[in-house]
Specification:
Blueprint lengths: L1 H8 L13 H11 L11 H9 L3 H14 L1 H13 L1 H11 L3 H9 L17 H11 L20 H28 L8 H29 L8 E5 L1 H4 L9 E7 L5 H18 L3 E2 L12 E3 H10 L3 H7 L3 E5 L1 H15 L8 H14 L17 H15 L11 H10 L5 H23 L14 H10 L10 H24 L2 H7 L3 H4 L3 H11 L4 H12 L4 H18 L4 H14 L6 H7 L1 H11 L4 H6 L12 H5 L3 H12 L5 H24 L5 H31 L4 E7 L1 H4 L9 E9 L5 H20 L9 E2 L12 E3 H10 L3 H7 L3 E5 L1 H10 L1 H4 L7 H17 L18 H15 L11 H10 L5 H25 L10 H10 L8 H22 L4
Parallel strand pairs: 2-3, 2-4, 7-8, 7-9
Antiparallel strand pairs: 1-2, 1-5, 6-7, 6-10
Helix pairs in contact: 2-4, 3-6, 4-5, 4-6, 4-7, 6-9, 8-9, 8-10, 9-10, 9-12, 10-12, 13-15, 16-17, 17-18, 17-21, 18-19, 19-21, 20-21, 22-26, 24-25, 25-27, 26-27, 26-28, 26-29, 27-29, 28-29, 32-33, 32-34, 33-34, 34-36, 42-43, 43-44, 44-45, 44-46
Length: 1012
């Protein structure tokens, strides 16, 4: 096309149009080859076009020119074959445009191009490649080289090395031809990276066997008649059949008998020398004791070392061990003996930390100036993938034999299929690993030298060649070099992100701590282990485990991965059996929630925290099945525990305001309250939230629900009356007024209304009453969540009084009929919902009632003490223990609150600081006013806070409200855990702490409240 365009325009065609950067030299070389004239390539267009598609057209053409110089007589045949044979053209030009090393090989042996013809079938199996190399040194014989009667080379020394080098280079060129052909001719089938790596690995194994045949010949020449039994074990990439074009080949040598070791060592040394001269470096540094250890050991010698002295990385290296040459039976014995050691290595103390530390050491040794470009060892490089995969294999492969694979990509796919890694993560890692390995191959092809260094980011020429070699082209405004750098960074960043996600997953440490035997127990052994862990009903636990892991679904597979770790985590909670049952219920309820198990697997902190919650609380699992989204917050401490309480309430009100139908609005409010209740409960149980923050957050969310219900009820009731004839305010009383609610608290409120302009009191009260009745009905409807009871018994005249009054009606009642206990109740009154101006005006208007001028006379003080004594004797439930009843018991909530309230009634008129609805703020204000000693105030505050926390803990543990410190040991253990006591604490200590704190508080109450 370029030529026809130039012809039409009348311009002189140039090779530059075909990607040649040195156009004059290229034109001279093309003319010499007969592929260029004054009109351009002419009939040679397919050849020149193919040259233009190679990674480096100038290199490809120059290499052809060298071959022509080396074989003038054979050039015509080659030129004609390039014109006629499309596959040869793609293979040969792909090789020559990628590699100066293969150009050197073909210049030295021009006839070798023939092996790339389309009709020539290259050796395709390990046996065929071995035969080629053995033939090169004249090795005849049956069996394997290095065994009795096996092939022994006829050539030795430099002659053998030269013959092997040429034959091996030819085998590599076969692979490179197939590998690079699709780059030149995209219509040809591409060869997957895995196939290229496996073929290169087979070629390396064939090379080791050929080297062994030469080594045997040289050993025999030295006078050794009987060759010792020697097995060559491939390690590393050769063992995993994932070798590069140029790699050291890691091996371990095993001798049969101790008496054979001197001769076997000579044989092994000869193999290393021959292979190192002819093919590649043979590295035996992975042997026991490394380079300082004996080159050859017996099988017993290896086992003795691995059992006593081996370090973690040595077991990791054995993952890829594979017998490849020498005595096959001895090699098989070696593999069978060491494999069990590999699959129990994860039980070693600090195993996971050791592997992680080793990866960091490798990374730290990469010079900083090249770390970003280091394909193999740098951050986001190949080692990141390999270390993550190997760590996962060694931890989970103990119980799952499907993970016992030597290939990185095969193991990665198995991890994805088995549920140990998300399928998307496994697919992404496979994709990125292939890309990085392909880059590595192309870089090594250039000179057939071992390199893992990506070109400098400003080296446009090298980047352009490499981008073409991997099939990338310019896109839009980006050059091919820019596209390559962008892809390299994308894959490196993805590898690093997934490496850190998988490699540093807390689940690994938890699973690694579970003994291997416990991962695949028989039923009887499982019962014994569960009993030993502390499960009181091991058979019941087994039934739960069976229900969770039965079948062959991916869900069951992930559960099988999680449960060994979860069983151990639950064993450290107060109620392992209850926790496991709760886990089963949650798992079954969320069976169709796609992210649930992935979250537990991928975010270890979620699994750890969930186990702690389920083994402690009955409320959490009840809420969790209806608010599963909170699970995601368990991995994000700020989102779980540091949310502003006001932010949550504002969010709830704005969401519910979108609904006009009352039932739907309240259902939405319940749903959002459930989310917040669960979030607060989780943060509380995990010790991440301060108690006062818990009280404030629970109060705020209750207020938000109340306000939302009021808003929608006002709108709904006004549909029949037109504009609302009244303004309504909700006054919080009791603990709601003090912003001190617990998980099971009712909301004590009063409703006050005021007619709008143009309306009268009667119409306002009728409207407000209808609204309040609807609010109570909506919020009081049956629900699985903790109840939303709106308690209005503190209103004037109690249960006999009207639901709603006007402000003037309230004031009139308090002035004429109000009793001292009602003034006391008003101490906690504050506006919480509805019309703010009306609510705040109500609070200001009742200040003279609750903060009486001149304080409280002695008669009224005696009345309060009398009422308190009656409450203590009459309202304490039958059978309750007054020493440990949090509300009405000695030193409990009522004691502290009545003491403060008496001080407020007596002194708030002269000490404005006492005019607060908060118990703790009130105690501080009483101290500041000199009404309480600091020590007394501190003891009251401690007792009140502890009693509030115990009430909350009981609700969390039982799933229902309770005011009594539990007597039953397991429940008391759970309450202790909810209060933040360590797992090993004696429950007697918990009770003693409570009794001590409340006893001190009771002494203050008797002195301050009762005047004793």
């Amino acid at each position: 096309m370029a030529n026809s365009n130039s012809s039409r325009s009348g311009s002189v065609p140039s090779p530059a149009r075909y990607g040649f950067t040195d156009a004059p030299r290229a034109e001279a070389q093309l003319r010499r080859a007969g592929w260029w004239s004054d009109r351009g390539p002419g009939a040679a267009e397919p050849i020149v076009t193919a040259l233009s598609r190679t990674p480096d057209p100038d290199l490809a053409l120059h290499s052809l020119d060298r071959i022509q110089d080396a074989d003038e007589a054979g050039w015509a045949e080659l030129a004609q074959a390039l014109a006629d044979d499309r596959e040869l053209r793609a293979r040969l030009l792909g090789v020559l445009g990628s590699s100066t090393a293969f150009a050197d090989h073909l210049a030295a042996h021009p006839e070798e191009w023939q092996r790339l013809r389309s009709g020539v079938t290259p050796p395709s199996t390990l046996e065929e490649r071995t035969s080629v190399l053995l033939a090169a040194v004249g090795a005849d014989g049956d069996g394997a080289p290095g065994t009795p009667g096996g092939p022994v080379a006829a050539l030795r020394g430099s002659e053998a090395v030269s013959a092997l080098r040429r034959a091996y280079r030819g085998l590599l060129m076969d692979v490179a031809g197939q590998d690079m052909a699709p780059v030149v001719d995209p219509s040809l089938p591409s060869v997957p990276y895995e196939e290229v790596a496996a073929t290169l690995s087979d070629a390396a194994v064939a090379a080791l066997r050929a080297a062994l045949s030469v080594a045997v010949a040289e050993l025999q020449q030295s006078g050794v008649d009987e060759v010792p039994r020697l097995a060559v074990i491939a390690m590393g990439k050769c063992g995993g059949r994932e070798l590069n074009y140029v790699s050291d080949v890691d091996v371990v040598f095993v001798a049969d008998q101790e008496s054979d070791i001197p001769t076997a060592t000579r044989l092994a040394s000869l193999v290393m020398r021959v292979a190192g001269s002819a093919f590649f470096e043979v590295d035996a540094a992975l042997r026991p004791e490394g380079k300082s250890g004996a080159l050859v050991r017996t099988l017993d010698g290896h086992l003795s070392y691995y059992r006593r002295w081996a370090r973690t990385w040595e077991f990791q290296a054995l993952l890829k061990a594979r017998p490849v040459a020498g005595d096959a039976a001895l090699g098989a014995d070696y593999l069978a003996a060491v494999q069990p050691l590999v699959w129990t290595a994860a039980e070693r103390e600090g195993f996971v930390a050791d592997v992680r530390s080793m990866r960091r050491r490798v990374e730290d040794h990469v010079p900083s100036e090249i770390s970003e470009r280091e394909l193999k060892l740098g951050r986001g490089g190949l080692r990141d993938v390999e270390f993550a995969v190997q760590l996962l294999q060694m931890v989970h492969g103990r119980s799952d034999t499907s993970l016992r694979l030597t290939s990185t990509l095969d193991a990665l796919r198995a991890l994805g299929e088995g549920g140990y890694v998300a399928r998307s993560d496994a697919a992404d890692l496979v994709d990125s690993y292939r890309f990085l390995r392909t880059l590595e191959h192309r870089l090594q092809l250039r000179q057939l030298r071992r390199t893992h260094l990506f070109p400098a980011f400003d080296d446009a020429e090298a980047l352009n060649v490499l981008s073409r070699a991997v099939g990338l082209r310019a896109s839009g405004r980006s050059t091919a070099a820019q596209v390559l750098v962008s892809e390299f960074r994308r894959h490196s960043n993805r590898v690093r992100r997934l490496h850190e996600k998988l490699f540093y997953r807390p689940l690994l440490e938890a699973v690694a701590k579970v003994p291997t035997a416990a991962l695949r127990l028989t039923t009887s052994a499982a019962v014994e282990r569960l009993a030993a862990l502390g499960y009181t009903s091991p058979e019941g636990a087994l039934r739960h485990i069976g229900a969770l892991t039965s079948g062959v679904s991916r869900r069951a597979s992930i559960q099988g991965t999680l449960l060994p770790m979860l069983l151990d985590l639950l064993a450290n909670t107060p109620d392992p059996d209850g926790g496991l049952l709760a886990y089963r219920k949650v798992s079954e309820a969320l069976a169709e929630t796609p992210w649930y198990l992935r979250l537990l697997r991928d975010e270890g902190v979620v699994a750890e925290r969930l186990a702690q919650l389920l083994g402690t609380s009955k409320l959490v699992p009840e809420l969790l099945v209806r608010a599963p989204e909170v699970l995601r917050l368990l991995s994000d401490t700020p989102a779980l525990a540091e949310r502003d309480p006001m932010e949550a309430s504002v969010s709830l009100r704005s969401t519910v305001a979108r609904y006009s139908e009352p039932a739907r609005a309240v259902a939405a409010a319940r749903s959002l309250r459930r989310h917040e209740l669960l979030r607060i409960a989780c943060g509380d149980l995990l010790g991440l939230v301060e108690p006062t923050t818990v009280f404030q957050a629970l109060s705020n969310i209750w207020v938000a629900v109340l306000e939302s219900a009021l808003d929608v009820s006002v709108r709904d009731t006004a549909r029949t009356t037109g504009e609302p004839p009244a303004r309504i305010a909700v006054i919080g009383m009791g603990r709601l007024g003090g912003a001190e609610l617990g998980y099971g608290s009712d909301a004590d409120v009063m409703f006050v209304c005021e007619p709008v302009e143009g309306s009268d009191d009667a119409a306002a009260v009728r409207f407000a009453t209808a609204v309040v009745e609807q609010v109570r009905r909506l919020l009081g409807a049956p629900s699985q969540d903790p109840p939303l009871e709106v308690d209005i018994d503190l209103r004037p005249e109690g249960r006999q009084g009207p639901l709603v009054r006007t402000l003037d009606s309230y004031l009139s009642y308090y002035r004429r009929w109000g009793e001292v206990w009602e003034a006391q109740a008003l101490l906690r009154a504050r506006h919480v919902a509805g019309d703010r101006e009306l609510g705040e005006r109500f609070c200001r208007a009742i200040d003279p009632v609750r903060y009486p001028e001149g304080g409280l006379d002695e008669a009224k003080a005696r009345e309060i003490r009398r009422i308190k004594a009656r409450v203590d004797s009459e309202r304490l439930p039958r059978g309750a223990d007054p020493a440990t009843h949090t509300k009405l018991g000695r030193g409990g909530l009522a004691d502290v609150e009545w003491t403060l309230q008496l001080l407020q009634l007596q002194h708030a008129h002269e000490h404005p600081g006492l005019r607060t609805t908060s118990t703790l703020d009130g105690l501080r204000a009483a101290t500041d006013a000199g009404l309480l000693d600091a020590e007394d105030a501190d003891q009251l505050a401690q007792a009140w806070t502890l009693a509030m926390r115990v009430r909350n803990a009981v609700m969390l543990v039982r799933g229902k409200p309770g005011d009594q410190l539990p007597r039953q040991s397991r429940e008391l253990n759970a309450v202790a855990a909810a209060l933040g006591y360590p797992a090993e604490v004696d429950t007697g200590e918990v009770v003693d702490d409570y009794l001590r704190v409340t006893r001190h508080a009771r002494a203050v109450v008797e002195r301050v409240f009762y005047g004793e």
